[in-house]
Amino acid sequence: MRTQVAIIGSGPAGLLLGQLLHKAGIDSVILERRSRDYVLSRIRAGVLEDGTVSLLDAVGASARLHAEGLPHDGFELLFGGRRHRIDLQRLTGRRVTIYGQTELTRDLMDLRAASGATTIFEAEDVALHDFDGGKPHVTFSKGGTAQRLDCDFIAGCDGYHGVSRASVPADAMQLFERTYPFGWLGILADVPPVSHELVYAGDDSGFALCSMRSPSRSRYYVQCGLDEDVANWSDERFWDELRRRLDPATAEALVTGPSIEKSIAPLRSFVAEPMRFGRLFLAGDAAHIVPPTGAKGLNLAASDVHYLSQALIEYFNERSQAGIDAYSARALARVWKAERFSWWLTSLMHHFPQDNPFIRRIQRAELDYLVSSDHAMAALAENYVGLPY
Ligand code: RFL
Ligand code: PHB
């Protein structure tokens, strides 16, 4: 089998890259380790920057997003027993859109299937070869049969645990990492959201987030210890803990019901540099992870593949290496700003076990400052809606 670009992974990064290339007449094959249904069962991101929405517009994958997604002009910070609104529209003239990653992935998969491009699900033992030379290829097996895919380039869009980054010699890469001493316990439930906008709560009892997928489906999170077992969290225990972290009026308004998904995600900041090794490019979670507090992970995957598709289009259409040579530095410049923002918001809003009362007072002073200064709020807002590409 031969293609121009072998894409490893059919998450948002791989699927969006495939469509951006397809629009430009560039052929790709996606190799995905899991089944289609498995990929579509993962509950993840919910907040899209308008840059991400524009990319989905550009590939024609946004009809359902515009019909069913929820445009949000602001969000709220809850501390000191009060909710404070961050007016994104007033501060930046921009907004975000609430649309689940699962739905976005489904839209991109449907579009890819309709375009006739090849996706091979349940591709086992994917291995990357000769990406340092001129003849890269990928081997894998499907249903027990060994196969080989020859290509001009490999795009490693296979997430944090994928094979692409692991194929790069350790001495060719620098890793930057911070782990946090807590995780997020998340729940999805078919109950109306407690508020029409997201509420980030950072009060004395620990962080909580009230988010949503639709006017009838809520997504809630509470900060939890890394040693917590989801099996010990009944729905009742979760709702009690969430109520404890909200102000009385919000807690009173909370509508509870049976969960349809419950899981714990550890929080991590991670960057691998560079994002290109010869004819292999890394994009999305394969190259970097942010803690979810800033809602940046999926949006960074989108900006990476925007830069990467431009570079590849330039190469195939104009035979110019310039975009390819610039890819890693261009992508990393935006990645590091989102890393900074996500680290900062995580540090501001969470309880760290080692924190002493001094740090708690500093966090509170910063939150007070933030909601009293338009300059500080504007800095938060412009990062939240997404820095320019
Ligand atoms: P993905 O989505 O992990 O997709 C990678 C794909 O590669 C496949 N794969 C392989 N395929 C072939 N061979 C192998 N050896 C392979 N190994 C892996 C995997 O099966 C998978 O299908 O990475 P991608 O495309 O880079 O997308 C990144 C986003 O998924 C991620 O950054 C976001 O979900 C992060 N995130 C959020 N991002 C936002 O922008 N806004 C949010 O509101 C937001 N909320 C979140 C989040 C992530 C969370 N979790 C669970 C980590 C909330 C949570 C709780
Ligand atoms: C979500 O809805 O899953 C979500 C929203 C905002 C975040 C993180 C996750 O910051």
TrEMBL record:
<keyword id="KW-0520">NAD</keyword>
<keyword id="KW-0560">Oxidoreductase</keyword>
<dbReference type="GO" id="GO:0071949">
    <property type="term" value="F:FAD binding"/>
</dbReference>
<dbReference type="InterPro" id="IPR002938">
    <property type="entry name" value="FAD-bd"/>
</dbReference>
<dbReference type="GO" id="GO:0043639">
    <property type="term" value="P:benzoate catabolic process"/>
</dbReference>
<dbReference type="InterPro" id="IPR012733">
    <property type="entry name" value="HB_mOase"/>
</dbReference>
<protein>
    <submittedName>
        <fullName>4-hydroxybenzoate 3-monooxygenase</fullName>
        <ecNumber>1.14.13.2</ecNumber>
    </submittedName>
</protein>
<dbReference type="InterPro" id="IPR050631">
    <property type="entry name" value="PheA/TfdB_FAD_monoxygenase"/>
</dbReference>
<dbReference type="Pfam" id="PF01494">
    <property type="entry name" value="FAD_binding_3"/>
</dbReference>
<dbReference type="GO" id="GO:0018659">
    <property type="term" value="F:4-hydroxybenzoate 3-monooxygenase activity"/>
</dbReference>
<keyword id="KW-0503">Monooxygenase</keyword>
<feature type="domain" description="FAD-binding">
    <location>
        <begin position="2"/>
        <end position="342"/>
    </location>
</feature>
<dbReference type="InterPro" id="IPR036188">
    <property type="entry name" value="FAD/NAD-bd_sf"/>
</dbReference>
